[in-house]
């Protein structure tokens, strides 16, 4: 299934009227009476069905003479369509060490509960959780550079050393002082345009690559720790450098991720699913049923979906390329907004 395929116009119009978020990243509507193109979730009044044209990308809509809507911002990721989210993400990027609180949000004129719902909807976590992850990252960098524990704790902006240790232990399964000892697997942070990622590698293979706020990340880290009998620490190898360099080119649209060596830590069935995912070319998608058929178990659709959800090598094992049988975007552990953006990036590779 290529990403240029669209459902029939009646299905799309029904989704437009319902403001169905399932079509985010897959379809845009151009309104012939206004010359504007929008997301299907746009809050503007809905046009008549006869005045609609359908597109898969903003580039197609522009080529047809339409201009982007100023209410739903159809040229950006879904989250970019909300001014509240854009504002707070810009503030977090400008000062990632700031210790955000609900009082800060109120002072900016935002209702904390509204902020929480918006960020949960787009990112799967609250803004305050994202801010805490940013501070934790700063402390991780300080530890890598050899800072004393109290210095790292203060740099990360936590009130107490115990709070800092608790946050690290929750994330990595180890107290911080154990993370700087010699280890077999080394963890480091990689920045991407879609957020920070934790990369764990040895001298030969990448073992884990996850967006830092993913809820299942601590579980994946603990599993790796168990596999290595606790020999999981902070540091970097040539595999980290190679992964970071390829990610940089990938997000610039210069090259798909091609040859990062990986170690798969799953059951035989899971490994087969993950290996099948790696055969999906950038710029194409598959349904769960197609993936099940590819591994020779056409009735194991649900098991394939579970294996897809437990993938610990985001982007490199491209579980984001799996969509619903009807062509709609489905769940993605890294957030549907990221899945939407990744599929959009990979449209250029389809050509």
TrEMBL record:
One of its GO terms (biological process) is methylation. InterPro entries: Ada-like_dom_sf (IPR035451), Ada_DNA_repair_Zn-bd (IPR004026), Bifunct_regulatory_prot_Ada (IPR016221), HTH_AraC (IPR018060), MethylDNA_cys_MeTrfase_AS (IPR001497), MethylDNA_cys_MeTrfase_DNA-bd (IPR014048), MethylDNA_cys_MeTrfase_DNAb (IPR036217), MGMT (IPR023546). Coiled coil: none annotated. Residues 108-182 form the HTH araC/xylS-type domain. The keyword Transferase applies. The keyword Cytoplasm applies. Its cofactor is Zn(2+). Zn(2+) binds at residues 38, 42, 69, 72. Binds 1 zinc ion per subunit. Keywords: Activator, Cytoplasm, DNA damage, DNA repair, Metal-binding, Methyltransferase, Transferase, Zinc. It catalyses: a 6-O-methyl-2'-deoxyguanosine in DNA + L-cysteinyl-[protein] = S-methyl-L-cysteinyl-[protein] + a 2'-deoxyguanosine in DNA; a 4-O-methyl-thymidine in DNA + L-cysteinyl-[protein] = a thymidine in DNA + S-methyl-L-cysteinyl-[protein]. GO terms for cellular component: cytoplasm. Its EC number is 2.1.1.63. GO terms for molecular function: DNA-binding transcription factor activity; methylated-DNA-[protein]-cysteine S-methyltransferase activity; sequence-specific DNA binding; zinc ion binding. CDD domains: ATase. It is an enzyme of class 2 (transferase). Belongs to the MGMT family. This enzyme catalyzes only one turnover and therefore is not strictly catalytic. According to one definition, an enzyme is a biocatalyst that acts repeatedly and over many reaction cycles. This is Methylated-DNA--protein-cysteine methyltransferase. It comes from Paracoccus caeni.
């Amino acid at each position: 299934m290529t990403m240029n395929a669209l459902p029939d116009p009646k299905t799309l119009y029904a989704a437009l009227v319902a403001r169905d978020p399932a079509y985010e990243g897959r379809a845009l509507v151009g309104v012939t009476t206004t010359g504007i193109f929008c997301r299907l979730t746009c809050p503007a009044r809905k046009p008549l069905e006869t005045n609609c044209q359908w597109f898969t990308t903003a580039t197609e809509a522009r080529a047809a003479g339409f201009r982007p809507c100023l209410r739903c911002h159809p040229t950006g990721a879904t989250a970019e369509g909300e001014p509240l989210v854009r504002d707070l993400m810009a503030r977090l990027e400008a000062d990632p060490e700031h210790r955000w609180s609900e009082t800060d949000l109120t002072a900016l004129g935002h209702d904390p509960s509204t902020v929480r719902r918006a960020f949960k909807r787009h990112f799967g976590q609250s803004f305050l959780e994202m801010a805490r992850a940013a501070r934790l990252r700063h402390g991780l960098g300080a530890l890598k550079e050899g800072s004393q524990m109290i210095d790292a704790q203060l740099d990360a902006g936590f009130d107490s050393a115990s709070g800092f240790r608790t946050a690290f232990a929750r994330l990595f399964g180890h107290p911080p002082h154990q993370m700087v000892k010699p280890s077999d697997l080394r963890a480091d942070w990689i920045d991407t345009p879609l957020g920070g990622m934790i990369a764990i590698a040895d001298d030969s293979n990448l073992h884990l690559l996850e967006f830092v706020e993913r809820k299942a990340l601590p579980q994946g880290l603990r599993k790796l720790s168990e596999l290595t009998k606790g020999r999981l620490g902070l540091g970097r190898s040539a595999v980290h450098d190679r992964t970071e360099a390829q990610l940089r080119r990938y997000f610039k649209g210069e090259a798909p991720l091609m040859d990062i060596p990986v170690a798969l830590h799953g059951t035989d069935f899971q490994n087969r699913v993950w290996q099948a995912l790696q055969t999906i070319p950038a710029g194409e998608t598959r349904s769960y049923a197609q993936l099940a058929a590819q591994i020779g178990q056409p009735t194991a659709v649900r098991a394939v979906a579970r294996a897809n959800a437990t993938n610990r090598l985001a982007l490199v094992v491209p579980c984001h390329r799996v969509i619903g049988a009807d062509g709609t975007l489905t769940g993605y552990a890294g957030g549907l907004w990221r899945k939407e953006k990744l599929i959009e990036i990979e449209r250029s590779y389809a050509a």
